[in-house]
Amino acid sequence: MQNWLQQREASHGGQPDRDAVSEDDSASTHSLPTGVRKLADLAYGPDVRQRLDVYLLAAEGRKHPLLVMVHGGAWRMGSKQAANVVENKLAHWSPAGVVLVSLDYRLLPQAAVEEQADDVARAVAWVQAHAAQWGADARQLVLMGHSAGAHLVGLLSTDAALRQRHGVQSWQASVLLDSAAMDVAGIMRGPHFPLYDKAFGTDAARWERLSPTALLNGHSPPLLAVCSSQRAQSCAQAEGLADRGRQLGVMVQVLPQALSHGQINQQLGVAGDYTRQVDRFLLQTGWMVSP
What we know:
291 residues, alpha/beta, 8 strands, 8-stranded mixed beta sheet
């Protein structure tokens, strides 16, 4: 009998389940809300992929909170300017005074996952160092990622050595949008999609080093793991991270949603219960914004 993975790949013509791959790879344009201007392609490193966009607010008079977004794309594709990465989040949080940053990073096969995590860490440290120039408060920063980007955010949130190496200061909270790769070692020891082999290889010791669940520690920021209940592994991975958080006394909340992998990303910011629950978590962590 075919296992669940073989069945799902067969139903997609032998290709990996589309929901296992982020839908962030269409670099479509998006409109800007009134009073927002974009600083495009700011360099936080020498590579052409080490670039970020900052969406600034015209309003002055206080230090604005920051939301830093990391796109997905199976560690091998994706764009910081894709509409489903930026548009609804910008429309929702910019009226509340939030400065949004969306970043690119090097991709497979040019850069291994470890190097991608280095890029995200380097970008966050760069944002923290430059926040005051944009009227933003580096201490009031929320880090968010979708799919592979959520895994990279999870690594930065749990790997103290990674943060220290790049001079990343503490931030308010992290939001992981539908990553099914929190326990990489557990994934790789069972049936899994070929895209994970390309990302994580065959070294079991490396799997542990790339597992946010294994790396979680008492110095990790509060975490919200949003998961699609339509996927086979996402919520189980999120619950495993939350179980580890309870053992360590770290705040890890799980938010299941009856949405597809792509919808988890695209619909955040759309008025409704999903966005309200994310807002509620962020307010609980002390993020100084009330949309």
